[in-house]
Design goal:
136 residues, mainly alpha, 52% helix
Length: 136
């Protein structure tokens, strides 16, 4: 496996480990959790792309199960990701592009719900609703 793929596998492993820690054995299930943060969601998409989508309750591959049980030891997962990337040049190129895009500085501000504020940076008070007063 080339040095580039080893480095890429290392980057991907960080994201997949975060997703595995958050989702457990459901990491490859197609269900969506809108509360997941960007890193966990990205890791889940990477895991699903590399290992395939599974039905909820279906077993996950052993290296992924290992990191679910012990997130502090991702060596087997990193190896499995590296092997998958080395075996499929198209997959490796796609994952490389995803990781590059993720590392670009992007800011996305999302709001949900009536009167929900959407801000990038706030150094003051944000109040929603009627009749708010603020001390001077």
């Amino acid at each position: 496996m080339s040095g580039d793929l080893v480095q890429l596998a290392g980057h991907v492993t960080q994201y997949v480990t975060a997703a595995a820690g958050a989702y457990g054995v459901a990491v490859l299930a197609r269900t969506q959790d809108h509360a997941a943060d960007a890193t966990v969601g990205f890791g889940r998409r990477l895991a699903q792309r590399i290992f395939g989508v599974r039905a909820e309750g279906e077993e996950v591959p052993e290296p992924l199960a290992g990191v679910i049980d012990d997130p502090d030891d991702p060596a087997a997962l990193r190896r499995a990701i590296g092997e998958a990337l080395a075996a499929d040049a198209e997959l490796a190129a796609q994952v490389q592009q995803w990781v590059q895009d993720a590392h670009k500085t992007k800011v996305q501000v999302v709001t949900v719900g009536e009167r929900s504020p959407a801000v990038h940076t706030n150094h003051g008070i944000i109040a929603t609703g009627d009749g708010n007063t603020f001390p001077q």
